[in-house]
Records
---
Amino acid sequence: MKMMLWQKAMLAASGGVLLAGCSNFPARKPPVLVWPDMKFQEKYKPQMKSEFFSDGRVTRRPVANTIALETYKEDEAYSTGLNPDNTYVARNPEPLNKETLERGQTKFNIYCQPCHDKTGSGRGIVPSKAIWVPGNMHDERIVNFVDGEIFHVITNGRRSMPAYRFQIPEKDRWAIVAYVRALQRSWHGTMADVPADLREKVR
Ligand code: HEC
């Protein structure tokens, strides 16, 4: 059945009225709220001024000499890579096994590879597009770092390298350190490091 013109007009008009019910599109004033629900509440937002507290701040400071549970670290050396006397932790506290190395490899390839490339030489995709020179992890200076120093670099960044402590949990950072050690070892490896029965294949 063909629609008459007036029927079409009615349909369009009623559609318009229905849609207008959903928003107050043509109106410039805020909608009339019959039930305001929780649209307006008495509340503080960050950085607002407070009449309640004597210092006028809404954002409260922690009570003096307290540490928030979620930032409390029982083992400082493990979480910072620094000993109490401010020297770098000498050895990786994580067990050096296949599981740690594989975890380190996965995380290295996610977080470090873009800049340092898969081998750690520092020729990743980021420096190929930007004037930015990541360190070569096979430089003697860096090979001579103790484990805690590499951990510290990942945790806090260094010079133009950004910090990764927020992205990478501590355990994974130590796993990456173990993997970086493996990369360095393989880079400076010789034929003598290859098991005798595999030497033919490598040559
Ligand atoms: C966004 C790029 C970028 C990423 C990602 C990155 N690095 Fe770096 N890294 C750099 C740059 C740039 C330098 C050189 C810093 C300098 O000397 O100014 C550097 C230097 C280093 C150094 C040598 C520090 C020194 O004293 O010279 C180490 C070790 C290192 N990075 C480890 C890592 C590890 C491990 C990861 C992964 C967790 C990582 N980096 C991820 C950019 C990056």
---
Amino acid sequence: MTAVDNVLISGASIAGPALAHWLERHGIRAAVVEKAPALRDGGYAIDLRGKAINVAERMGILDAVHERTTQIARISMVDADGRRKAGIDPGATSSPDRSLEILRGDLVDLIHKTTTGTEYRFGDTITGLDQTGDGVRATFAEADPQTFDLVVGADGLHSNVRGIAFGPEAPYRRFLNSYISIFTIPNHLGLDREVRAHNTPGRFSAVYHSPRAEGAKGLLLQRIDEESDIDRRPREEQMAYLREAFGDMGWETGRILDEMEDAPDFYFDSVTQIKMDTWSKGRVTLLGDAGYGPSPMSGQGTSLAMVGAYLLAEALAQHDDPATALAAYETRMRPYAVANQAIADPGLAFLAPRTAFGIGARNLLLKAGPLLSALGRFDTKLLKASEAVDLDAGK
Ligand SMILES: Cc1cc2nc3c(=O)[nH]c(=O)nc-3n(C[C@H](O)[C@H](O)[C@H](O)COP(=O)(O)OP(=O)(O)OC[C@H]3O[C@@H](n4cnc5c(N)ncnc54)[C@H](O)[C@@H]3O)c2cc1C
């Protein structure tokens, strides 16, 4: 007997549909509630690394991921006049078969297509959760209330389920003293599978092109000392903040800022991790960014969501008591989450050094050859973290 038979999942991005896939495989019913009116397509490129690739293979989607891969061929660091100061050949450090890049929307679509037995409820959200001992009664903005055996928050960094079950975000959030913005702009530089980036101390401005995506992406990253509430302010104020913070940066940054105004998908947020002592409360648990978001600086959020979904479903299938199953999920997943969250700090330091000396030193090290450089060491660490879980240990 399984611990649960009827699961409600909040969030239809990566973690939610991946969990639905594995619950279906274990014969457990699931419904997914998503606040957006439909699956979101396109988006930025994300990574599947290490054990997440094994999970994708077991899901039967790995060949399709390969067909849609958006692997970047060249990364160039340029000066204020656009002259190349250093470069990275991503293939020289990463192990190509253990690190795959794909558009977030493509991965969501591939996973979603495997979950034909799952009910999706778009355009709705959970408004309340009432634990009744042997179930959780959920109320919704749109649908009628319903009782489930388990509720899973797979609704991202600012998780609604986490807010309802565990309270406000503040105690669980680790701010990495940075803001990030990303949005679609025209591909003026004519890039082809390339990232072109410029640094000044504490700032990183980049344009990159991924095949299968419209135009190019503008990406702005700023390291700061003091946190403000700009990530919670209206979009117009965030754009004004970026113009002020990046306006004097040189290179293509002025054009990126001009084009930001018309971007259809402007994204701005603090660079934040989620760290919690426990991911479960009674019959409510958290998965992916909602429970252990590692921040975009780790590049491991997608892989954590994929592996977490696999391990959570397996634990629910193997134990006949939800508390034991959720404890087993945490025991196996926590070291993996911790190892991959640890990647974010060196990732941030590498991308946006705080001083001119740091930028020069990084570029010099890049020239020394990828395998000798800071990038080589960082990449080794990243790949090691991405492999640091035994998917079969629970069998
Ligand atoms: C700018 C940026 C760059 C990134 N780069 C990378 C990268 O290079 N590599 C990488 O691996 N990862 C990257 N990530 C992180 C990656 O996108 C996430 O870690 C990953 O998407 C986590 O998946 P998730 O399903 O847990 O959460 P999310 O993808 O955040 O999905 C949450 C879902 O929940 C839905 N939702 C939210 N609130 C509610 C609600 N109230 N009710 C119902 N549904 C709700 C949302 O609409 C969304 O569909 C990046 C993230 C950002 C923002």
